[in-house]
Design brief:
Number of helices: 33
Strand content: 15-25%
Shape: globular
Oligomer: single chain
Helix content: 25-40%
Strand order of the largest sheet: 25-20-30-29-28-27-26
Mean pLDDT: 77
C-alpha cells in the first residue's frame, strides 16, 4: 500500500480536536449559526441585531443531494485545484467518492460521511500569490506543483472533518468535542512543512529522553554531528499526544454562545484577532469565510469557503520566529533558554514511513510552557519589548543587577546566568489560559504571589496601549507588551539566591522543571500558593552549612549496620541541559558517624554511584533520595507563623509545615537557636557531632521572614517502637503492645478470618514486620498501625502505672491464653460463651493500649503560664457508631494534663516529657530503600503518679466488668470489636 495512502486514510475516521483559542477568526459583529437554525449577530453590546433562518435546501443549484462530494465539486466547475489536492491521496479520494467497500467499512472502520470546507480556484490563486511557505530549496511556494506531500497534507487535513455536520452544529458536533480549535491528531499529525535536517550543533538545550525512548541518548547523538543528522520539529503540548510537530493543523471554529457564556466581550476578541472591528456577513473557519453553508451531498455536507484554510504554526515555532526579528527578540531568547529536545517515537515512525528515513525525530519543548499547559486550556506567553526589558534590567533596584548586569553586558549576562536564577523572573510570563491576558481580565493578571504582573499598568485601557503586537499560534498566543515587569516577586524569589541560600532556592523552584507533571513534586508553586497571604517563617540552611554538614540520610540511619550510615553534602550546581524533574543541586554521600564531627574534607566519600548531579532525573539511582531530602528539608524548615510571634515568648515548641517538632532553644531579637529531633538526640547523648542550629542573618519576604541558620535541622531517626523499647520506664507498656503481634494463634482462634494477615492491623498496635502486608520501618522494628502521615501524641503509663492497671484487672496475653486453654471442651473446641468472654478480655487490653494514642502534637511547656483546653480524638474506636473516643488536653501553668473517660485529669511526668519520635515508612527494606513513603511525627510523654488513661468509665476500678458474664462480654465485644 502506498505510504501516503496508508496514513492519510486513517484521517478519514480520526478524531478532530479543538481548543479554546480563537485563532485566525476574522468576523466582526461575529455571525454565528445557532443550533435552532438561526443566525445570530453579536456586536459587543450583547444584543441580537439580526436573525435569519439557515437554508434547509441547497442554495447552489449545481450541488445535487443525490451526488457524492467528489461529483458535486466537479459539477461546480471552479474547484479544480482542490480536486487535484484530493486526487493526490487515494484514501481521501475514495472517501469523497463514497467508494469504500463493505469489507473496508466492517474491518477498518472507515466513515462514509464527511463535512468539507471547500475553497475554490480563486481562493487557491490568492493563496499562491500571498503565502509564506517555501519549498525545500527555500523558494516561495507560488504554484500547486511546488507543494510537497507534507504541505498538501497540511492543506487537505484542514478542509474536512468526519460525519454530517451542518454549519449550525459545528460548535456542538461530537467530532469537535465542544471545544473550539480544529486539528487532527494520532498518526495523522501534521509535520514540518519544510522538514529541517539538523546536521550540526544546536542553539537549544538538549537532554536524554525518558525511559520510553529505550534509554538511547539522542541528545548525545545530536551533539556528535551524526552523519545524516536528526529531524527536529517544534512541538505543541497539552493535547493528549506524546509530542506534536511544526505547523500542526490548527484553526478556529467560532462559537458565539460559548464566548458569551464565558463572559468575554467583542472587544476582547478583536484585541487578539479573533473578531474584526468592521461588520462581516459570514461564518468563519479559521481565516476563511463560509460563503455558502449546508450544501447537502450523498455522503456529506459541502460548506463553500472563500479562502484556503491554512494551519498556523505553534507556539514554539512562533517563539523561534520572534527571536530573530521584531520587537521582542531579547525576551524570546530568554524564554528559549528553557527549551529542550524530546524524542518523539511516533514522529520518528511516521517520518520513516513517509521518507524511508531511519533518523531519529525530536520535538522542541519548553519546560516553563509545560508547567502551565492543560489539555483543555490554551496558554498565552507575555513577551516584553526589547526596550522595556533592557530598561528594567538596568534600573538600580532590579535584583538581577546584583549579578553584575550593566549597559554593556546585559545580553551576554542574561544568556549566561544559571536558569534557576532566571526562572522566577521568566516563569510569570507564561499564563495557563489566553483569557488571562485579555483586557477585560487584566485585573486578574497577577503573579503567583498576587502582585500586578506589569508595573505601572493599572487599567485595561493602559494595558491595551502597552500591547504592541498579538501573535497567534495553533496552540496559544503571544502578547508583546511595552511595559516592565513588577520587580517585587523577583526580589522576594531571589532572596534565597542572593542571601547564600541557593540550594534552598533551587529546591523551591524545582517543580517548575517538571514536564507537565506538577503534581509529582510539592515544590515552588505549591509553596507559594499555600503561603500566599499567610504569615510564615522559613529557616533557611546556608549553602556553606549544607555543603559542610549536609543532610543525614534517614534510610541509611534506619539500618542497624553502621556502614550504611551516610550523609549527603549538597551544593548548588547549574543545569546544563533541560530535562524532566531536574534540581539545580549536586549531592554527594559521605560516611557518617555521630562519634565524629562531620567534615567533608576528612570524612570518607562513598563510591561515585552515591551521587546525583543537577542534570540527573528519575533515571538516576539516588535522584529520588536527593529529591526526598530536599522536599523534607523545605517542609521541616517552614513554620506557618510570624517570626515576631515566636520571639521573646515562654513557648519553645513549634511544628513545621511537615509536622516535625522544632525546639527553639533560644529566641530573642538578637539570637535564635533552633533544633530538630536529630539535634536533640545528639545533644542528649553528648555525641561528638552534637550541635545547635544558630542564626546567621534574617531576610524579609513578601509575607514572611527567612531566618538563615548555619546548618539544617533534621527529624529524629528513632521511631515509636525504638523509643518505647529503649526507655526503661515504658518497658511494660511496650511489652504488652508487642505481645499482641506475637499472639497470632490466639487471634486466629478468637476472631477467625477477621484476624487474617490482611486484617490483623485491627487487633494490634504495631504492623507486622513480615508477610504480604509489611510496612517497612527502621530495621528490626515495627511501625504503629494507625495515624499514618499524622502528628500524634502518646501518653505512656510508666511501669508503675501499668502495674496499677493490672491490679485493677487489666488482662495480659498470657492470662487470656490461660483462660482459653482452661475453657476448651472435650473436643478441644472453645464454647461460644467462653469465646466471647475471651474476646472481651483481648479487646479490653487492645483498647486500653490504643486509648493512650491521641491525635495532634502536644508539648509540655514548663514556662507557659496560660493555656487552653481542647478535645482530641484517640485511636480507640467505638464500633457501634464508628466514632473515635475522645479525651481532653489541658496545657498551661507549666503543666500538661489529660482528662480521660473517668473525668479525671492525669498529669504528664516532667522528666519523661517531650520525647520525639518519627515513624518513617520506607519504600523497601531500609538496606534497599530510596525514599520515604509516609511519615508520622510523634511526641511521647510519661504519665505521672503511677497512673493510666481509662477508655471506658464503666470499667473504672475494675476491668473484669467487661467479661464478668457472657452477656456483659457480648455487649462489650459488640461495642469495641465488630
Amino acid at each position: 500500500m502506498n505510504t501516503i495512502y496508508k496514513h492519510t486514510i486513517r484521517r478519514i475516521f480520526g478524531c478532530v480536536l479543538l481548543s479554546t483559542l480563537p485563532l485566525g477568526v476574522m468576523a466582526q459583529n461575529v455571525r454565528v449559526i445557532k443550533r435552532d437554525g438561526t443566525i445570530k449577530m453579536y456586536d459587543g453590546s450583547k444584543q441580537n441585531i439580526k436573525v435569519m433562518p439557515v437554508p434547509t435546501v441547497n442554495t447552489n443549484d449545481k450541488v445535487k443531494t443525490g451526488s457524492t462530494l467528489y461529483d458535486n465539486l466537479q459539477a461546480l466547475g471552479n474547484y479544480t485545484t482542490y480536486l487535484r489536492l484530493i486526487d493526490s491521496f487515494g484514501g481521501i479520494k475514495r472517501a469523497f467518492e463514497n467508494k469504500y467497500t463493505d469489507d473496508e467499512r466492517k474491518n477498518m472502520g472507515f466513515i462514509d460521511t464527511l463535512t468539507v470546507f471547500a475553497p475554490n480556484d480563486e481562493a487557491f490563486a490568492r493563496f499562491f500569490a500571498h503565502n509564506v511557505w517555501t519549498d525545500q530549496q527555500g523558494n516561495t511556494i507560488s504554484s500547486y506543483d511546488q507543494l510537497s506531500d507534507s504541505q498538501k497534507l497540511s492543506l487537505i487535513y484542514m478542509s474536512y472533518i468526519p460525519g454530517f455536520v451542518t454549519a449550525n452544529n459545528l460548535h456542538s458536533n461530537s467530532n469537535i468535542n465542544a471545544n473550539l480549535r480544529l486539528y487532527a491528531w494520532g498518526y495523522d499529525r501534521q509535520f514540518n512543512l519544510v522538514p529541517y535536517k539538523h546536521t550540526g550543533g544546536t542553539d537549544i538545550n538538549t537532554f536524554p529522553p525518558d525511559d520510553n525512548s529505550g534509554r538511547e541518548d539522542y541528545a548525545k547523538k545530536l551533539n556528535q554531528h551524526i552523519m545524516d543528522g536528526v529531524w527536529i520539529g517544534y512541538g505543541t503540548v497539552g493535547d493528549n499526544t506524546d509530542g506534536a510537530l511544526a505547523y500542526r493543523g490548527g484553526t478556529m471554529i467560532w462559537n458565539d454562545d460559548y464566548w458569551q457564556y464565558n463572559g468575554l466581550s467583542h472587544d476582547d476578541l478583536a484585541f487578539i484577532g479573533a473578531a474584526e472591528t468592521e461588520g462581516s456577513e459570514h461564518i468563519k473557519i479559521g481565516n476563511a469565510h463560509i460563503t455558502q453553508p449546508n450544501q447537502r451531498c450523498k455522503n456529506g455536507y459541502l460548506h463553500l469557503v472563500d479562502e484556503v484554510v491554512v494551519p498556523q504554526p505553534n507556539l514554539m515555532y512562533a517563539l523561534a520566529q520572534a527571536r530573530w526579528g521584531g520587537k521582542c527578540s531579547l525576551a524570546s531568547s530568554l524564554v528559549q533558554r528553557f527549551n529542550y529536545l524530546k524524542y518523539d517515537p511516533e514522529y520518528t515512525y511516521y517520518k520513516e514511513q513517509m521518507f524511508n528515513d531511519g533518523d531519529s525525530a525530536m520535538t522542541v519543548r519548553n519546560s516553563l510552557l509545560d508547567r502551565v499547559v492543560t489539555t483543555l486550556q490554551t496558554p498565552a506567553i507575555i513577551l516584553l519589548t526589547d526596550e522595556a526589558l533592557k530598561a528594567f534590567l538596568l534600573t538600580t533596584d532590579n535584583p538581577l543587577r546584583s549579578f553584575g548586569i550593566n549597559q554593556d553586558n546585559y545580553y551576554t549576562m542574561l544568556m549566561s546566568l544559571p536558569r534557576e536564577v532566571l526562572q522566577p523572573f521568566v516563569k510569570e510570563w507564561f499564563r495557563t489560559s489566553f483569557t488571562d491576558v485579555l483586557p477585560s481580565r487584566y485585573s486578574n493578571m497577577r503573579s503567583a504571589k498576587g502582585h500586578q504582573l506589569l508595573a505601572g499598568v493599572t487599567t485595561p485601557e493602559a494595558y491595551k496601549l502597552a500591547v504592541q503586537q498579538v501573535i497567534p499560534a495553533a496552540d496559544g498566543i503571544i502578547v508583546v507588551v511595552d511595559a516592565v515587569p513588577n520587580a517585587e516577586d523577583l526580589r522576594n524569589e531571589l532572596t534565597f539566591v542572593k542571601l547564600a541560600g541557593q540550594v534552598a532556592g533551587a529546591a523551591l523552584t524545582a517543580n517548575d522543571r517538571y514536564d507537565g507533571k506538577r503534581s509529582t513534586s510539592p515544590f515552588s508553586t505549591d509553596y507559594q500558593r499555600e503561603m500566599h497571604n499567610k504569615p510564615f517563617t522559613m529557616f533557611v540552611p546556608t549553602d556553606e552549612g549544607l555543603k559542610q554538614y549536609g543532610l543525614v540520610d534517614p534510610m541509611g540511619m534506619a539500618s542497624n549496620n553502621r556502614t550504611s550510615w551516610r550523609y549527603w553534602s549538597l551544593t548548588p550546581q547549574s543545569i546544563s541541559y533541560n530535562g524532566d524533574g531536574q534540581i539545580a543541586v549536586a549531592a554527594k554521600a559521605y560516611r557518617y558517624d555521630y562519634n565524629k564531627v562531620r567534615n567533608i574534607e576528612t570524612d570518607n566519600p562513598l563510591s561515585g554511584s552515591y551521587s546525583s548531579s543537577a542534570n540527573d532525573n528519575r533515571t538516576n539511582v539516588y535522584y529520588g533520595t536527593k529529591r526526598q531530602l530536599l522536599t523534607d528539608m523545605l517542609d521541616q524548615h517552614i513554620v506557618l507563623q510570624n517570626l515576631d510571634s515566636m520571639l521573646n515568648t515562654s513557648r519553645h515548641w513549634y511544628l513545621s509545615r511537615s509536622g516535625m517538632p522544632i525546639y527553639m532553644k533560644e529566641h530573642t531579637n538578637t539570637n535564635i537557636v533552633v533544633n530538630g529531633g536529630m539535634q536533640i538526640d545528639l545533644n542528649e547523648k553528648d555525641a561528638a557531632d552534637k550541635h545547635d542550629c544558630t542564626l546567621q542573618f534574617v531576610g524579609q519576604n513578601s509575607t514572611g521572614t527567612s531566618v538563615f541558620i548555619d546548618r539544617p535541622m533534621q527529624p529524629t531517626s528513632q521511631n515509636v517502637f525504638q523509643r518505647l523499647q529503649s526507655n526503661d520506664a515504658f518497658s511494660t507498656f511496650f511489652e504488652y503492645a508487642e505481645a499482641l503481634n506475637n499472639a497470632y494463634t490466639l487471634k486466629k482462634m478468637l476472631f477467625g478470618d477477621e484476624a487474617s494477615e490482611a486484617l490483623s492491623w485491627k487487633y494490634t498496635i504495631f504492623a507486622d514486620r513480615s508477610g504480604g502486608y509489611t510496612r517497612y520501618g527502621n530495621a528490626n522494628t515495627m511501625l504503629v498501625n494507625f495515624f499514618h502521615n499524622f502528628n500524634y501524641t502518646i501518653f505512656v503509663p510508666t511501669n508503675e502505672g501499668m502495674q496499677k492497671a493490672v491490679e485493677a484487672g487489666l488482662p495480659t496475653i498470657e492470662s487470656i491464653e490461660q483462660f482459653v486453654e482452661e475453657s476448651l471442651d472435650g473436643n478441644g473446641q472453645l464454647p461460644d460463651d467462653k469465646r466471647e468472654q475471651a474476646q472481651a478480655r483481648y479487646l479490653t487490653l487492645l483498647n486500653f493500649l490504643k486509648y493512650h494514642f491521641c491525635d495532634k502534637s502536644y508539648f509540655l511547656e514548663p514556662d507557659l503560664e496560660s493555656g487552653d483546653t481542647e478535645q482530641t480524638t484517640t485511636a480507640c474506636i467505638d464500633a457501634s457508631n464508628q466514632q473515635a473516643l475522645t479525651a481532653d488536653i489541658n496545657s498551661g501553668n507549666g503543666m500538661l494534663m489529660v482528662r480521660d473517660a473517668s473525668n479525671r485529669y492525669k498529669a504528664v511526668k516532667p522528666d519523661l516529657a517531650n520525647i520525639i519520635a518519627r515513624d518513617a515508612e520506607f519504600n523497601d527494606h531500609p538496606t534497599r530503600a530510596r525514599y520515604i513513603r509516609s511519615a508520622s511525627n510523634v511526641v511521647l510523654h510519661g504519665i505521672d503518679n503511677a497512673d493510666y488513661l481509662l477508655f471506658d468509665n464503666t470499667l473504672n476500678g475494675d476491668f473484669t466488668r467487661a467479661w464478668r458474664t457472657p452477656s456483659a462480654a457480648r455487649k462489650f465485644v459488640k461495642k469495641y470489636g465488630k
